[in-house]
Amino acid sequence: MGRTLNRRTIGVTFLVTALLLLMMTPGAKAAAKVRVGLSVSGSAVEIGGSGLLLDATGHVIAQVDDRSSLELTASGGQVWLSGASFPVLHAVPSRSGAGSCLQVNGKPYRGDLVVSAADNRIRIVNELDLEEYLLGVVPLEMSPSWPLEALKAQAVAARTFALRNANRHQGDGFGLCDTSHCQVYGGVSAESTTSSIAVKDTAGLVLKYNGGLIDAYFHASSGGRTETAGAAWGHDRPYLTVVEDELELSGPYASWQESFSPEELGVRLAEAGYPIGPVQQLEILERTPSGRAASVSVRGSYGTAVVAGTRLRQVLNLKSTLFNVQEDTAWSEQLKITVLAQSTKGSFVTSVASGTHVVTAGGPKILSSRTSGDVSRGGGGRAIVLKGRGYGHGVGLSQWGAKVLAENELLADKDFFTQILTHYYKGVTIEPYSF
Ligand SMILES: [Zn+2]
Question: What's the CA-to-centroid distance between 213 and ligand 1, angstroms?
């Protein structure tokens, strides 16, 4: 009897799983294409690998094979090959698949290449299927050594981001760039077995809210609480709210600390357009709903500035805006010497520890705390210490959070990535992008 029940339970589970899989399998429509602008600099490029070079009307201009590559150059808005010029050239691989790709300066890429010229600069757009593009994105956005369910969550977020931003660089002549401005994309050489499995296991799946693609933002570490899109960038999204993320606090960015001398803060702020002198006090005036610094009052020797938390993060290169300010008294025992430094950006005042080697016009010199003249004691030995949590803007999926969630669910079913995604993106559905 027990055995029968067991079988029935297993049968029902199998049926439900099969139905779920059917619902999640993308339709038979042609896959979406992406147009990625490759970071190629200069006026010449070498196209290698295996394929054909065609002009705009589809005539074969040249053949590319494994033994000989072609050098294309840009001049006067035209692409030049062996003395002939073309407004645009298309390179198509002779066969599909990773084994017979075209190469750009020795680096293999799936799909086609479109070569054009912007004045005397070569421009290369890699046109390929969205799913093939993701194979070269996911391993660069999340370590392939991380749990598969976390990689699957990353794959769905990256796919959603790519479709939602497919025309972000329309004015530049392509769709997405290959840097962190859009998503880091490295072509075939970036691909890794585990992340490719994550892309294939989630093929076609995207995140939607009220039937539309979401802004699938992600970041390295939430520090225990995610941020709303409104607080970070001024445009709220109902699915990007504050999410409690305590599990995340076991990650490497659970806490961080940065110490600054008053002079160092003064110099950094002056370079950013706030000439208020050595900084005496930092005070958080306002916090966002997740507890991040929204605005900070910075009091210097010559004035006070109110700086947005996100701006201060840029200026001081902080890991996040989730921080507290304190004054470190232990630090005051270190002797600091204020020196006038000359750099390519001009001259400014900075401080160094006593005993530091500096190179002067008269050669290397060790500074002692008793040195006088052009070198003097300064800063009062105080430090302003920022103690914080998390890494990144904090909006949407936390990558370290996804990793910890997946690690804590070792016996999780193979669709656990959906739970990771709905933890970070509230009220969303996960469905194929075409039916
Ligand atoms: Zn971009």
Answer: 18
Question: CA-to-CA distance for 127 and 56, rounded, in angstroms?
Answer: 15
Centroid of ligand 1 to alpha carbon of 167 (angstroms): 10
**What are the residue ranges spanned by the domains of the chain?**
1-8+31-129, 136-251+394-435, 256-331+379-388
- Whether 47 and 113 have beta carbons less than 8 Å apart is answered as yes
Which residue type occupies 53? L
Dihedral sign computed on CA atoms, order 235, 238, 240, 243: positive
Note the pTM of the prediction, 2 decimals: 0.78
What is the Cα 55 distance to its own chain's centre? 36
> How far apart are the CA of 47 and the centre of ligand 1, in A?
23
- pLDDT string in tens for the chain (435-residue length): 334 434 444 444 444 444 444 444 444 455 799 999 999 888 999 999 999 999 999 999 999 887 778 999 999 999 999 999 999 999 999 876 556 799 999 999 999 999 999 989 999 999 999 999 999 999 999 999 999 999 999 999 999 999 999 999 999 999 999 999 999 999 999 999 999 999 999 999 999 999 999 999 999 999 999 999 999 999 999 999 999 988 877 778 889 999 999 999 999 999 999 989 999 999 999 999 999 999 999 999 999 999 999 999 999 999 999 999 986 554 443 455 666 666 666 666 666 666 666 666 666 676 665 433 333 334 456 789 999 999 999 999 999 999 999 998 866 677 999 999 999 999 999 999 974
CA of 165 to the centre of ligand 1 (A): 9
Q: What is the 174 CA–ligand 1 centroid distance (Å)?
A: 10
CA of 40 to the centre of ligand 1 (A): 14
CA of 67 to the centre of ligand 1 (A): 34
Query: How many residues appear in the chain?
Result: 435
Query: Any idea of the CA torsion for 144, 146, 149, 151, to the nearest 10 degrees?
Result: -40
What residues form DSSP beta bridges with 48? Answer: 103
Distance 180 CA to ligand 1 centre (A): 7
Q: Ligand 1: distance of its center to the CA of 166 in Å? A: 10
Q: How far is the CA of 175 from the centre of ligand 1 (A)?
A: 8
